[in-house]
Description:
Elements: H1 4-21, H2 24-29, E1 31-38, E2 44-46, H3 48-61, E3 62-73, E4 79-90, E5 103-116, E6 119-127, H4 129-136
Amino acid sequence: MPDVRENTMALIARYYAAFNAMDIEAILACLTDDVAHDINQGERETGKDAFRAFLGRMDHAYSEQLRDIIIMTSPDGARAAAEFMVHGVYKVADEGFPPAHGQSYVLPAGGFFDIKDGKIARVSVYYNLADWIAQVS
Length: 137
């Protein structure tokens, strides 16, 4: 029988596989209804509806694949972290950022998670925004 750490690792792996497929329903299935989402250098959003809207904005402006994903968990499986490389294309200008014309970018990023009742209750994503801006400018 899998232990809680294995269950958490499998949950995070499913979340990232769904992200890479941009399968919004599969992503949302990994989340609690009141999920907290800490956007890189931005505000916290709460709930699946806000997360769905965020994914729609992301899919509109960016095409991203996450590669070389390494998942780590706390001994009790209640927290997890992942490190990965983002391979992306900037498709449409996002508000407050440089103009888009199909620029590609590659940058390291990380995600941090709280797990509650077998689902993701918090997602916090971090990457170097200055590096991304330099790559797409």
